[in-house]
Amino acid sequence: MKRRWLPKHVSTFRDRHGKAHYRYRRTGFVTYYFKNEPGTEAFLAELRACNDGVSAPEIEVGANRAAVGTFDDLLSRYYRSPDFLDPGERTRVVYRGTLERWRSRTRKGRRYGEIMVRELQPRHVEAMLAELLPHRTSANMLRKRLSALMKFAMRIGMAGTNPVIVTRPFKVSGGGFHSWTEEEIAAYERRHPIGTVARLAFDLMIWTGQRGGDARKMGPASVHDTRLELTQEKTKVFVSLPIMPGLAESILATPTVGAFFVVTEFGKQFSVKGFGNKFRQWCDEAGLPNCSAHGLRKAAARRFAEAGCSNQEIKAWTGHTTDSEVARYTAAADQRTLSDTAADKLLANLAERLAKDAAKALKLGENK
C-alpha cells in the first residue's frame, strides 16, 4: 500500500498544464486551495487555519442562498478578502468569532445576518453594542469589527457610508493585561531556574519584548551572528534584535530539541493556544495567578521606558508602529524612576550649558 505523505484532508491534483496543486477537502467544510508548497512554514500556517475552521469554514445549510445585499452576503465576501485573510491565524479566529456571534443574534425575530447592509444606521449600532453591556470590552471589540466590515462594504459598493464611525466606544477602566512587576519577575526566576524550558520561554519574551506566539517559533535558525531576527506572526513586522547576555546564557544552558528553542514534552512545536496554556501553568507554579505571557511583553516595554528609551527605540524592539500603542504598553513604567531619569537629563543639560557659557566668557576675557 502506498504510504500517504500529505496531511489528513489534504490532496493533490494537476491542472491542464501538468502543474501540481494542493487542496483541503473535508466533508461538511468549504474546500480550500493552498497557496504554498507542503513542508513550508507558510503551508503549515494555512493548514492550521483550515483545521481551525478559518480558511475552510463549516458549510452552512442555505448559506449560499443568502439574500444579496444582506450582512450574510457581505460576510461571505469579507471572509474571502485580504481584509480578513491578511492578519495572523489567531487574529482571524478571534475576529470571526466576534462577527459570527453578532450575526446569529436576533432582534424582533430577525437575525442580524438577514439585515440589509444599507439599512444599518448609527442608532442601530448603538443598540447592538448596548446589548453586550455590562461587558464593555466585548462591546468595543464588536464596534471595531463592524467598522472594519463596513469599510469593506463601502469599498465593494455595498454601502455608501460607515455608520459605525460616528458612534463612541465605551470607556474601559484598567489597562488590559497585567504588566509584570520586578518582584513578580524575580519570583518566576526563583521558581524556574536557568536551564529549564519554563525559564527559557520566559527569557525569550522578557529579553526581546515579543509575543508568546513569536517566542514559540524562535530557534537556532532565528540566530544570525549575535542577533535574533524574526517576522512577527501577527503584524508581519520584521525585527532584528541584539541577543542580550541574560538571554544568551539561558539559550546556552537549555538543551535544544529540533528546530525550536521551546518545545512540548514530546519534542514538538507548541501551538499558539498550547504555549499560552503551558505558560499559564508555569506562572501558577510560581504563585503568579495575575501574570501572563502578554503581560511579560508589557513588562519588557516598561523596562525600556524606565531606562529612558525613546518611543522610537522601544518600537524598534517591540515592533509597534504607533506611539499610542507604545503608550499603552509603557503605562506601568515607574513614575519615580522616570522622573529621576528626566531630572538626570535636565541636570546634565544644564551642566553642559553652564560649561559652554563659562568657556564663552573665558574666551571673551582673553580677547580683551
Strand content: 5-15%
The CATH architecture term of the largest domain is: Orthogonal Bundle
Number of contiguous helices: 15
Q: Main beta sheet, described?
A: 3 strands, antiparallel
Task: Look at the structure and give the mean pLDDT.
Answer: 87
State the name of the first-level CATH class of the largest domain: Mainly Alpha
The CATH superfamily of the largest domain is known as Intergrase catalytic core
Q: How many E-type strands?
A: 8
Q: What is the straight-line distance between the termini?
A: 103 Å
| SSE pattern | EEEHHHHEEHHHHHEEEHHHHHH
Low-confidence stretches: none
Using the alpha-carbon principal axes, give the shape.
globular
Strand order of the largest sheet: 1-2-3
The CATH topology of the largest domain turns out to be hpI Integrase, Chain A
Q: Which bin fits the share of residues in helices?
A: 40-55%
- Number of individual domains: 4
Class computed from helices, strands and strand pairing: mainly alpha
- If you compute it from the alpha carbons, what radius of gyration comes out, rounded to the nearest whole angstrom? 26 Å
